[in-house]
């Protein structure tokens, strides 16, 4: 998936806790530290492609990207699901600084969103469940329903994700989320 697709899909996933919080009229720290959380989601959504020198983030860190690709290949170690899970667990257990905590949580959510989005493509992700070895590529859908990176189908899927994200933004930013939701579906 292209970096724009990763941004949209990860933000779509990243807004889910915000919509839930807003829908139940609760106030947790998510809204207080929103900008830190969203910065983490955005960076996490593009970071895994540091293993591809031609990617958006790979071009920004070309030397590091070339080294990682030479050693691990594209969609290798940077696409293991264990990495964002470890970051999330460490943030929960050890980070006392609330800004860093929400950046780390957002980064983990964006990273997971990136992995899930790549699992919608024809190539899927090989060995995504490391350390549990497998000799196959994993996808979220049957291969016949997946798409190639940069294809027209990808743009349709990303547009659909953008519509969902727009709806999430509307309900997150509006004052009466539940009322608006009921009006929408009545």
Distance between the first and last residues' Cα: 36 Å
Average pLDDT level: 89
Give me the side-by-side strand order of the main sheet.
1-2
Number of helical stretches of at least 4 residues:
10
Give the strand tally: 2
Please compute the radius of gyration using only Cα atoms: 17 Å
Number of domains: 1
Main pleated sheet: 2 strands, antiparallel
Roughly how much helix do the residues carry, as a percent range?
55-70%
Low-pLDDT parts are none
**Secondary-structure-derived class:** mainly alpha
Hey, roughly how much beta strand do the residues contain?
under 5%
Order of helices and strands, N to C? HHHHHHHHEEHH
Which of globular, elongated, flat, extended, rod-shaped describes the shape?
globular
- The multimeric state of the shown protein is single chain
Walk me through the topology:
Blueprint: H1 3-14, H2 16-23, H3 29-32, H4 34-46, H5 56-60, H6 62-72, H7 82-94, H8 98-118, E1 125-126, E2 137-138, H9 152-173, H10 177-184
Helix pairs in contact: 1-4, 1-8, 1-9, 2-9, 4-8, 7-8, 9-10
């Amino acid at each position: 998936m292209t970096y724009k697709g990763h941004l949209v899909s990860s933000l779509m996933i990243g807004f889910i806790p915000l919509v839930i919080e807003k829908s139940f009229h609760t106030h947790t720290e998510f809204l207080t530290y929103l900008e830190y959380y969203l910065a983490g989601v955005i960076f996490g959504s593009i970071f895994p492609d540091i293993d591809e020198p031609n990617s958006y983030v790979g071009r920004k860190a070309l030397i590091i990207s070339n080294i990682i690709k030479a050693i691990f290949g594209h969609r290798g170690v940077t696409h293991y699901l264990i990495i964002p899970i470890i970051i999330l667990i460490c943030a929960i257990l050890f980070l006392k600084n609330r800004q860093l905590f929400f950046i780390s949580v957002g980064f983990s959510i964006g990273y997971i969103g990136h992995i899930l989005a790549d699992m919608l493509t024809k190539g899927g992700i090989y060995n995504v469940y490391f350390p549990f070895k497998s000799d196959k590529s994993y996808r979220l859908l049957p291969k016949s329903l997946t798409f190639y990176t940069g294809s027209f189908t990808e743009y349709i899927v990303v547009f659909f994700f953008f519509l969902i994200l727009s709806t999430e933004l509307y309900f997150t930013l509006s004052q009466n989320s539940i009322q608006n939701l009921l009006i929408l579906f009545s």
